[in-house]
Amino acid sequence: MEWIHYVTATVYGIFVLRIIISWLFGDFDIDADTDVGDLVSFKGLTHFLMGSFGWMSLRLYYFHHLTWHDYLIAFILGIIVMILLYFTYKLTLKLETKPEPLTNEKLVGRTATVSMIHLKQRTDDKFHYRIAVNNEIGCVEVDALSTEEYRTGDVVVIKDYINNFYLI
User: Fold this and answer.
1) Alpha helices in 26-41 (DSSP H)
2) What's the pLDDT tens digit per position in 87-96?
């Protein structure tokens, strides 16, 4: 077996190992702000070597020798594989969605549950409550005012948001 086959097996092994690690523990070097500078990195070098040594390894396996144009084709294929995998990573990053919590006016119209009543805190004929509402990421507790009296556990609808208080 030629040394080119060993390099090819090592590079593809590194690639497969990186994929397994990213599945198990998450990817450790992809940032949302990828740029062309990422082509010149360990990952970019790995992709280049996959394309070029993959071609040379196949040529050696089937034809048992390499010519000068095989090296040229290997170089071009290495660049192509490096660029294709770079854009594949960028595409997968665009597909990643991160939930954004709803806050303030965006919670108006949602149902909530009264989780606590602030006893003896009546101002302007309004009762003070602590309500639990789902904000797309989880349940949060916020302060609320109401002219109506509720008990703990009652389900209410948020009607408005004024001066850091929700009106129910």
Assistant:
1) none
2) 887 888 777 7
pTM for the whole structure: 0.50
Cα–Cα distance for residue pair 86/47, rounded to 1 Å: 9
Task: Report CA-CA distances (Å) from 77 to 8, 27, 46, 47, 74.
Answer: 14, 25, 13, 10, 5
Q: Is the distance from CB of 81 to CB of 47 less than 8 angstroms?
A: yes
Tell me the domains of the chain and their CATH numbers.
3-95 (no CATH), 104-167 (2.40.50)
Structure tokens at 110: 């949602």
User: Token digits for 7?
Assistant: 């390099």
The secondary element (H helix, E strand) that includes residue 87 is helix 68-95
CA 14/CA 86 separation, integer angstroms: 17
State how far the Cα of 167 lies from the Cα of 161, in Å rounded to an integer.
6
C-alpha span between 128 and 11 (Å, rounded): 64
